[in-house]
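pasting input
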Amino acid sequence: MIAEIIATGDEIRSGALVDSNSAYIAEKLEEIGVEVARHSCVGDNMDMLVSVFKEVSARCDIAIVTGGLGPTVDDLTTAAIAKAAGRQLVLDETALRSVEDFFKARNRKMTYSNKKQAMLPEGCKRLDNLMGTAPGFVIKTGRCSFFCIPGVPFEMRRMLSDSVLPEIEKSEHKKRKFCFVKTLSTFGLTESATGEKLVGLSDEFPDIKLGLRAKFPEIHIKLYANGEDEEYLRNVLEKGCEWVLQKIGSRVISSNGESMEAVVARILCDRKETVALAESCTGGLISNRLTNIAGSSEFFLFSGVTYSNDAKMKVLNVLPETLKAYGAVHEETVKQMAARARDVAGATYGLATSGIAGPDGGTDEKPVGALCIGIATSERVKGMRFCFPGGKRLMNKSIFATTALDVLRRELVYDL
Amino acid sequence: MIAEIIATGDEIRSGALVDSNSAYIAEKLEEIGVEVARHSCVGDNMDMLVSVFKEVSARCDIAIVTGGLGPTVDDLTTAAIAKAAGRQLVLDETALRSVEDFFKARNRKMTYSNKKQAMLPEGCKRLDNLMGTAPGFVIKTGRCSFFCIPGVPFEMRRMLSDSVLPEIEKSEHKKRKFCFVKTLSTFGLTESATGEKLVGLSDEFPDIKLGLRAKFPEIHIKLYANGEDEEYLRNVLEKGCEWVLQKIGSRVISSNGESMEAVVARILCDRKETVALAESCTGGLISNRLTNIAGSSEFFLFSGVTYSNDAKMKVLNVLPETLKAYGAVHEETVKQMAARARDVAGATYGLATSGIAGPDGGTDEKPVGALCIGIATSERVKGMRFCFPGGKRLMNKSIFATTALDVLRRELVYDL
């Protein structure tokens, strides 16, 4: 089965907007065992659209087309595909009712141009849009089934999972076959170290295909299982997952796509525990990530972003003699920072960072990439030292923040 | 002149990586007056690459190809384009020396596979890579000149501006024509309000084309001037810029692409002044953005991310009676937060935020999107109230942080 993705719209063609939809769709197709051969992007231009649709109809089995289904004169996908397929546009009564209902439910007035959205190519199959006004559709022309869906990401994602992927899975081109994928997000090992730890997986589980994906600073482990026996595949994938967890369990953040901060937030909320931070080199990035989680006031109390030594002393009562003897980037300093942040906020945990993000400020002893992390609980205060050489400032901030959150996660999960 | 962009690589084809290079290139080409007709992306597959290059060579004048120039067996761009053009690969001595120098300068050992990077198609023109090992090249086949450059973003960007764009500007297909663009980053007006303020620009300056681009939460104003008289165009663009500044000067953050935080950082550094923050609803995002700037310890001293009321009282000495009488989201509260953050850190300015980022926590009086900002200087303390209805949590945090930085920027620039 040959598949392609076509993104439409002048915003993407001209570079005003980065097309992240196509990557998302390619990953989802791969997860059901469909490999994408090519992506294209074209603007809101009738001749160009028709010509691309004609090319693709001759060389592919399926194509996912995003964008151009809206109500304005720029939205040409429906008309262009009808033209490429030699079909008329006809009013789809169900689509019209659903556009009407959408406006009624929001107490908004439907315009004439919205009605245009209910005009679909003759002989297509409508794909309902539960998140917006533009219905999608699938139409076959040449050898290719074109799945036309909106470009608005949250509408596209919903329609992809609700309509497009199930439709492809049952389509005639795709043998009745199951394709399962399990993704484990990990942190703390390099891609090659992860690969080495997982040597033996394919001997143990010949039906599982292993994929490693670097999503800086995380590494995602993907386990694919394709075949005809659903129960067997589910079973083998579960066993493969367990095998991976036995090998590198403490490095696995989540097996359901949850981010590091979401995992930490969930555990803290479940236990009705709280955290306070003292951030130097991470400059507020950890608190920013934790407060990106809705409801963060349940578990996040305070972060003292104490960039200057003066602020470390005044706000966090770090002892001047400690700073003098050891400097800001030291286990002793971050221990005091963590303990004091915990104290002042009355939190269950205190977590502190101090390090050299660069580009300047490194020394032989404490180079750019050096990081100290402190963690304080009711029972003890620990200081740790890490080094991540070679990174640029923003990469360093990111890996520093993730390392600190991982220290907290491992404390919460494993008491490490 | 018809132009296309081709991104290569399995990471992009499979969706593991979002292709942001193509959007960047499309924008840069547009700025020199070259409109991109289509983008394509294909994986590391020889047959597919050759077939796409052949198609494109028949329908375009120029194509920018990214990726596939590295040393590994997956890197097929050079061999594929040679095959499509019917050329041999030959050793480019200058390219070899530059790869050797790259390794020598870094004290690293050059491998045999790196030598492969110096093999270029016969008859191509080498494009030097000052940032990495892979040289680029331009080769003409069919009607099309293919500019092949690396996929690593910072290498790609440098080579695009140093070699590719100048080469295109002097190429035979492009009439001796100048295309200038000026971009003004603005904040605080909607796209339509910005458009309304600029009505009259095209009457006043018929040679300037106006473009508005939403780069949430900023709006970018682009002024394009194309023609043959370089001096006249530079002059008219400068006058057009002045016209815009007269209309909405205080909304303009920068006219050279500087970010809001970079502008604030630059002004503070120039004046040897400093800032301390007290962040509630922005949760550390403002300090994170300010500390993304290299050298931020020069001007950024402290942020108290006081998410809980308890932390507001303990760390920032906000009076319990103020919180009781007005609540956390109020001008009086943020005034105390700003003044106290300034005091405790000994900073020139104190800046504070408190608001409702959502999705929960809104009331009729203080709905999701409500924001209070406090700013403290040596002379006065001010409190302000804003409301940004309809946004989601991360959008709200982003627009809250930008609003606060803009309050500081306007205080610095205009004493507003």
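fyi Residues 393-414 of chain A form the longest helix (22 residues).
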